[in-house]
């Protein structure tokens, strides 16, 4: 457990980030193991089935994760200020609010799965597998909530190691269950979904046991379930603001996926592979940003404004170094990365799918230098309780993805493109390829200006140390 209000910022941040980063790696391994095993054992059409539902699945997960991450900002702020009774009351309110939202999402999936598939233009041979996958992960959302709820509370008080240890164990279990259910029992895509849900359930149970045994000061009692207008409003503002921001981004991705699903199955497979690799390369960003939210929240509660400015700069330097490394990985080993997912790369079709995926990566990763500005400053503002500006940028991203489907895909040749390694071959898919780099650049400029003004207006001197820190 770390008090991020004392000590050298960059050292604290790096030590806090590393467990989160490794945890995110293993979370990506959940997804990558599913896709790799599905691709190798079930074929590219099954990969397309899973990939075609990815934005909706991501939306469900990110509503829940955004909600508890936003709630944890208030937990971290109270921890930094030494207000431990209020911290536990905040956790009690989190339990009620997050549980209600998750129940509503599960009900929506059960009632509207078929209209969702139709809206995504998922038809033909991949629809059945796509439906099974979405239903299973939808009902498994409850265990996703429990684990992420527990992990977010631990990280809010500076404990990023234990969530990692638990996640490592469950990741290897997930891979083993994948092999059992998909390969041995031949349960297909449904087996991969069940394996992931089962592994997440074990993570949640083990994390709960740890909280009970080693972090009892975080456990709530009946007396902590106190709801006031002010406290509930502050919590909802942080939690729903973060969830809404994530949701807007994912709604844009759903719109974009609708456009992608109108291409042939080979193009969907190429896009799925590229997005999985891109998500892995973006993982250090999310790790540093998670640390930055907690860091800014704790130091805001402690009134240490100079440390906030220094921590933001240090985080951006860390992400600058990773962006350069990611660029080298893609340009020197892009085909090797894509080959983890895409099958039969020694055949003309498999090679063309891999070429398209690599082309996507080579256009996206150079713009990581703009993305790091966008993500780091967005996280800083969230940790400072300024969630409105990131929400605006997310709305701009949503509108741009709608424009991509409506205008960019037709501009570059429509949906008649085919997989290949040249812009002429992929046709309208190039509109998808350049969509995110453009919006990353625009939003980075906007949020950069607003953050500079926000930091300038913050008090120049720190408040007196009130003794807030670790329990």
Give a short overview.
This protein has 17 helices and no strands. With 471 residues, it is mainly α.
Question: How would you sum up this structure, described in words?
Answer:
This protein is an all-alpha fold and 471 residues long. It has one domain (9-457). The chain contains 17 helices and no strands. The longest helix is centred in the middle third of the chain and has 37 residues, at 265-301.
Task: Return Rg in Å.
Answer: 22 Å
| Number of E-state strands | 0
Q: How is the main sheet built?
A: none
Structure class: mainly alpha
Average pLDDT over all residues:
85
Give helix and strand order, one letter per element, not per position.
HHHHHHHHHHHHHHHHH
Strand content: under 5%
Indicate the percent of residues in helices: over 70%
**Low-confidence spans: pLDDT under 50, at least 5 residues?**
465-471
Number of domains: 1
Shape type: globular
CA-to-CA gap between the ends? 9 Å
Figure out the total of helices: 17
SSE topology:
Blueprint: H1 9-42, H2 44-52, H3 54-81, H4 84-119, H5 127-139, H6 141-156, H7 161-184, H8 188-214, H9 229-261, H10 265-301, H11 305-338, H12 348-364, H13 368-383, H14 388-411, H15 423-426, H16 429-433, H17 435-457
Helix pairs in contact: 1-2, 1-7, 1-8, 1-10, 2-5, 2-10, 3-4, 3-6, 3-9, 3-10, 4-5, 4-6, 4-9, 5-8, 6-8, 7-8, 9-14, 10-11, 10-12, 10-13, 11-12, 11-13, 13-17, 14-17
């Amino acid at each position: 457990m770390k008090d991020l209000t004392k000590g050298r910022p960059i050292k604290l941040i790096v030590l806090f980030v590393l467990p989160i980063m490794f945890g995110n790696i293993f979370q990506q391994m959940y997804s990558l193991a599913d896709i790799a095993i599905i691709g190798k054992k079930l074929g590219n059409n099954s990969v397309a089935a899973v990939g075609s539902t990815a934005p909706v699945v991501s939306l469900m997960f990110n509503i829940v994760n955004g909600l508890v991450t936003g709630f944890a900002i208030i937990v971290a702020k109270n921890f930094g200020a030494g207000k431990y009774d209020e911290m536990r009351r905040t956790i009690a309110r989190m339990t009620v609010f997050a549980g209600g939202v998750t129940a509503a999402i599960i009900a929506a999936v059960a009632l509207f799965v078929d209209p969702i598939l139709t809206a995504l233009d998922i038809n033909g041979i991949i629809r059945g597998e796509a439906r099974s996958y979405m239903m299973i992960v939808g009902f498994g959302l409850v265990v996703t909530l429990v684990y992420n709820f527990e992990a977010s509370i631990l990280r809010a008080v500076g404990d990023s190691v234990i969530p990692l240890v638990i996640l490592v164990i469950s990741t290897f279990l997930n891979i083993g269950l994948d092999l059992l259910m998909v390969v041995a029992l031949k349960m297909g895509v449904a087996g991969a979904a069940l394996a992931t849900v089962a592994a997440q359930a074990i993570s949640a149970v083990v994390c709960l046991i740890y909280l009970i045994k080693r972090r009892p000061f975080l456990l709530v009692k009946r007396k902590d379930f106190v709801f006031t207008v002010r406290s509930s409003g502050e919590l909802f503002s942080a939690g729903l603001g973060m969830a809404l921001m994530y949701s807007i981004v994912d709604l844009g991705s759903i719109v974009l996926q609708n456009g992608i699903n109108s291409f042939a199955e080979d193009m969907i497979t190429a896009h799925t592979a590229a997005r999985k690799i891109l998500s892995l390369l973006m993982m250090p960003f999310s790790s540093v940003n998670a640390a930055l939210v907690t860091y800014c929240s704790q130091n805001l509660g402690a009134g240490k404004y100079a440390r906030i400015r220094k921590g933001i700069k240090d985080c951006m330097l860390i992400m600058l170094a990773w962006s350069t490394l990611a660029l080298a990985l893609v340009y020197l080993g892009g085909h090797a990365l894509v080959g983890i997912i895409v099958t039969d790369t020694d055949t003309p079709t498999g090679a063309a799918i891999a070429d398209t995926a690599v082309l996507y990566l080579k256009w996206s990763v150079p713009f990581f230098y703009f993305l790091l500005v966008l993500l780091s400053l967005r996280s800083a503002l969230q940790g400072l309780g300024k969630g409105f500006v990131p929400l605006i940028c997310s709305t701009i991203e949503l509108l741009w993805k709608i424009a991509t489907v409506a205008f960019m895909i037709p501009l570059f040749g429509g949906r008649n493109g085919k997989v290949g390694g040249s812009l002429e071959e992929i046709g309208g898919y190039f509109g998808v390829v350049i969509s995110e780099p453009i919006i990353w650049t625009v939003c980075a400029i906007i949020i950069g200006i607003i953050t500079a003004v926000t930091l300038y207006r913050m008090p120049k001197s720190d408040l007196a140390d009130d003794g807030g820190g670790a329990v």
